[in-house]
Amino acid sequence: MKIAHVLSSTHTGGAERVALLLCERLLRRGHDVTLVSLEEPRHGPLAAEFRAAGARLLAVPKSLDGYDRTLSARLLAAFMRSRFDVVHTHNPIPLIYAAIPARLSGAHAIHTKHGPHPDAWQRVMLRRAGAAATHAFVGVSQSVADYARSIREVQSSKIHVITNGTDTDRFVADPERRKAARSTLGIPDDAFVIGTVGRMAAVKNHPLLVRAAAPLLDERTRLVVVGGGAESEKTRGLAAELGVEAFAHFPGETNDVAPYLAAFDVFALSSDSEGLPLCLTEAMSASLPLVCTAVGGVPALVDEGETGLLSPAGDEAALRASIQRLKTDRDLASLMGKRGREVALERYSADRMTEDYLRLYED
């Protein structure tokens, strides 16, 4: 099949990494794959990885100011020239601009909703119009699918749930990688490392994690926040304000998080809203115990007391208590990490996810 994935950009995020995993596996199965980037923002670092996997890249740039009245027409022209069998959009902006052109071009139109994405009513109306053109509408968790129903984003008969998969061969516990990553970060080999990976946006609430971790940090207890975005400076500033900047590390955005996961002892997620975070399945695959806020699809992913610990959204004290518990009880942390690896292999492999999507493509 000739398949196009449409993304807002090739900057590093969960939806983008899921699309990359899908493209890699579709290409291995002999399909022809193109990545269409709307380039908002421009020039993302994942473009090189899509090319290395063998995908063609097609940039159809969206204007950076407000609604782009010409983008859908330009996408339709591109789709008509390429004659894709499947056009698979990810998240709201591609849904708004690319789903109707996909349907008009004769392609099978698939959309994946990676999170709730609350929005102004005008944008919800545009999303509904795009969703009406799709043949299938996928939520990455049951909670995301339920949210789509609750706002009447799409008719219920089109909704499917396909949980995100991860590369379980790439994300593994690796002592050598752990040692190298800690050396690069300037972290002692014997330190307890609380880590997280993700786009630094307000909804991810990294300041909550900094505040929760701050009283625990010292020479032998470190915090590592991997990612970039609008909230980066604010979060770094909070660490300095709390007097823990020497023990909090912010290495910035990367398209290779595996070495950082190897350096962690526990993976923390402090978001206010989520779909089904790819970073959690990657952490589980790397044998890390999880401490997370119980939002969106997270409670369905984390087996409380077995693969991790959950706390209410925004509850600094509860999040700190979860971290402290695993810092104190290393045997429990190790058992949770091992169980997490087992669950990742059972439920969240990228190959399983790819087969699920192929069934939709072929339907």
Topology at a glance:
Elements: E1 2-7, H1 14-28, E2 32-37, H2 47-53, E3 56-59, H3 71-82, E4 86-90, H4 92-104, E5 108-113, H5 121-132, E6 136-139, H6 142-150, E7 159-161, H7 175-185, E8 192-197, H8 206-213, E9 221-226, H9 232-241, E10 248-252, H10 258-263, E11 266-269, H11 278-285, E12 290-293, H12 298-301, E13 308-311, H13 316-328, H14 330-347, H15 350-362
Parallel strand pairs: 1-2, 1-4, 2-3, 4-5, 5-6, 6-7, 8-9, 8-11, 9-10, 11-12, 12-13
Helix pairs in contact: 1-15, 3-4, 4-5, 8-9, 8-13, 11-14
Please name the defining characteristics of this protein.
15 helices, alpha/beta, Rossmann fold, 6-stranded parallel beta sheet, 44% helix, 2 domains, 363 residues, single chain
Can you give me a brief rundown of this structure?
The chain has 363 residues and is α/β, with parallel strands linked by helices.
Radius of gyration: 20 Å
Structural domains: how many: 2
The CATH topology name of the largest domain reads Rossmann fold
Q: Which descriptor suits the 3D outline?
A: globular
Counted beta strands:
13
Q: Return the CATH class of the largest domain.
A: Alpha Beta
SSE string:
EHEHEHEHEHEHEHEHEHEHEHEHEHHH
Q: Quote the distance from N terminus to C terminus.
A: 13 Å
CATH homology superfamily of the largest domain: Glycogen Phosphorylase B
CATH architecture identity of the largest domain? 3-Layer(aba) Sandwich
Strand pairing plus helix content: what structural class? alpha/beta
Give the strand order of the largest sheet, numbering strands 1, 2, ... along the chain.
3-2-1-4-5-6-7
List the uncertain runs.
none
The description of the largest β-sheet is: 7 strands, parallel
What's the rounded overall pLDDT mean?
A: 96
Taken as a percent bin, the fraction of beta residues is: 15-25%
Helix content range of the residues, please? 40-55%
Q: How many helices in DSSP terms? A: 15
